[in-house]
Amino acid sequence: MKYGIKLKKGLDTLISENQELSSVENQPKLTRGLLFLLAITSGISVANLYYIQPLLADIAQDFHVTAGEIGRIATVSQLGYALGLLLFIPLGDIRERKSLIFSLIGVVIIALVGVALSRNIIMLGIACFIFSLTTVIPQLILPLTAQLAEPKERGQALGIVMSGLSTGILLARTVSGVIGDIFGWRIMYWIAAGLMLILAVILKFFLPECKPASSIRVTYGQLLKSLWTLFVELPELRKAALFGAMIFGSFGAFWSTLAFFLQEPPYYFTAQIVGLFGLVGIVGILYTPLAGRIVDKKTPEFVGLVSGIITLIAFIILWQLGSNLWGLILGVIIFDIGTRGGQISNQARVYSLIPEARNRLNTVYMVSYFLGGSLGTYLGSTAWSILKWDGVFLVGSIMISIGVLSFLPALNKKGYEVTSK
After folding, report:
1. Rounded to the nearest 10 degrees, what angle do helices 185-206 and 154-183 cross at?
2. CATH of residue 64
3. Number of structural domains the chain divides into
4. Which of 91, 99, 357, 93 has its CA nearest to residue 209?
5. Residue 2's pLDDT is what?
6. Cα 375 vs. chain centroid, distance in angstroms?
7. How far is it, in rounded angstroms, from Cα 372 to Cα 277?
8. I need a surface site. Which of 126, 140, 227, 360 has the fewest CB within 10 A?
9. Is 11 within a domain?
10. Residue 187 lies in a domain
11. For 156-203, how does the pLDDT look when each residue is reduced to its tens digit (9 = 90+)?
């Protein structure tokens, strides 16, 4: 294993000497049906984080707060998600995943009801923080998919699950915009709680018990400490974390301000139209499995670098042509292709490092990813308040440029081949 020797000293204190990998026979087979269920679960779960985006302007009006103030609710949600990744995802390396997922779903349902019942922005922020803290189910499912998939099919399997996750994000914006415009934003969160309850029932009957890939015997505290060891000892993990943080930061800057942009001249769109606008991202979803196959055939680094450049081009298009509907649509399509390709390449890159530590690797990566997203959301909403669309472009383009530049030393130093693994 590429990094096994290097990490042995740091991890020996965390893993018992008689650790043995679980046999392949003891884990479920990744059938098409199970893969589809994992993709659907990821999509329904992650949607909870994105219902708010088309509704931000309406919620701000309801609570009589500014765009900057309501934008901080989205930032709080992403910070909650990052903390949830840190606290809960490492448990996937030592706990059976089905019971862990059920526990998280229960808290999510209660918190979503809390959002629907919120009477002020403080109560809304607390409820959003709690459901975001526990809506980390997709990040348990992705390492599980990597564990169950055959190595040669891992990129494609991750691409399918990511397609389900991306569909959840897209439909979240679309559905919440329509529901919010017709029935009010609170109804959307009642519906979200109901969907999570239905999902729990389905998983009860159809999700098999999924034990971790290894028999690690450590305390919870030791498990958390090992995250720092992984971060320090794995340069590839650090590079992926930086790129992921920057590309999701640009994503947050754009989508957290789009509702305000579309409700001003020349568009004057309602929340319903803003939500429907998210359907443009279907092209990016269709591209996700293809990105996974490209990763399998070439290298994650190659796909990541190209995806970063594509995302930067998209920001330039959105900045220069965003006032024209066709330019805005074109920019969003290219933007989604770039960000989705970057995410697939990063996760394939991270999951290939140490198989028995995939949940912890995913924790380090995704915490960085959502910290970057929360930073981008905060900076984007702040920039919108000061410089409007020019400010959003400035924040997004700087963040994605940093991400792209992070590849150059690695490519020059290690001489990555971009045509084959």
Report:
1. 140
2. 1.20.1250.20
3. 1
4. 99
5. 45
6. 14
7. 25
8. 126
9. no
10. yes
11. 788 788 888 878 988 888 889 889 888 999 999 999 999 999 999 999
